[in-house]
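Here is one chain, start to finish.
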Amino acid sequence: MKRMTGSLVWLALAAALSIGPAGPAALAQTPAAGAQPRAVLAAMSQAFEAAAAKVSPSVVSIFAEQVVQSGGRPGLPDDPFRDFFGDQLFRRFFGDPGQSGGARRTVRSLGSGVIVSRDGLILTNNHVVEKADKLSVVVGDKKSYPAKVIGTDPQTDVAVIRIDAKDLPAADLGDSDEVRVGEWVLAVGNPFELMHSVTAGIISAKGRSSVGLADYEDFIQTDASINPGNSGGALADLDGRIIGINTAISSPSGGSIGIGFAIPINMARKVMDELVAKGQVVRGYVGLTLQPLEETMAQALKLKSTDGALVGDVVRDGPADRAGIERGDVVVAVNGAAVKDNTEVRNLVADGRPGQVMAFGLVRNGARLEKKVTLAERPRERGGAEPRSDRRPEAAQQKIGVAVQDLTPEIAGRLGYKDEKGAIVTEVVPGSPADDAGLEPGDLVQEINRVPVRSAGDFERLAGGLKAGDAIALLVRRGPNTLFLALKVQ
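Its structure:
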């Protein structure tokens, strides 16, 4: 039988099952009833075989070595992908080096990569290569090459390395924007040092974010079995085109349970191109702190939908501030296209270039408006503080589970709230609406439902007017930033 690519399997499947209006009953009564399903399965098998044969040669093994000091847990310290077995849900695929003695020792680990050019460029994960003192790449289970890092981008967990070789089997890169949930895929890599393993599954979801693996997330989720050692390997469609770079799994045990994540190849390719051309990734910046719109927050702000992103803070004199965007605005569109959530807005801005003008569609106090923002270059991330203080329980504690006090000069100086006004949160009752909303001791409440709060008395007066079931939005300053928190009065 002629071999079929993935795009043709479905035509064969449809043809094989086109047996008239009687459907499956007619198939059961047909003399050749067993032949047609077997033909379909054979065609599907051949599609998987062809895709695996096309992808596998371009997937390489990456061996990383690092010399570390003895003492404490071995491995790569301060790595956000390190040990997702404990407090974190996600476990990195970099491998878990064994214990050894001595003052200094070499830690070795294994990952995967995808050849993207015939002259030796290889795409992989940042966490596979970061902090490694020595890298080597094995192509086709045979020849080993020393490798050097061309560039890394921890914010997307993408890295590009190079080996000195020619006429390599470069992968065919697909279009991850076109993949569909339910589509068959193959994962190729080196799980548990089992070189060039191929597993199959489907795309379980697209656009996964808030996973906690990288700053910029838009993951493809798959149930194709991937395990430690698969990081940096290929996620491919049945035409043998790379649609993602396998990155991590969700697992309580460290092994595959059918929830894996891959960086979409369109994102990885864009980052790769910048790393090769410039050695770094330059991202757009508008100077906004954006929050998701939960149902309670939407109710509190009298919004009809949870689509969009709430502006929790605006950086003073930043691009958004100069354009006239204000705290409390809701971003509902960028460049005329509706946005679903804060992650989508953040990724769109990051994809922009300094000097580019972006049109932000906003909702402010129920009215639609548009502001044009000239992007700047994204600076380094800012940190925050973790302050604490004393207590003042009154109506607020009874209704929403929070105690506040006035912001004194001494507290303002200690917590970095000089020249600010508001009520300092001194206690949050466990399990209360305030606790569920994420309010913390040391937060400075500055508004309730867009009404300014300048003192603990203001807070108590406004809280006293609340009734059970009311949805309220609190504007809170936490360290150098502000954010909105929503809760329902009990």
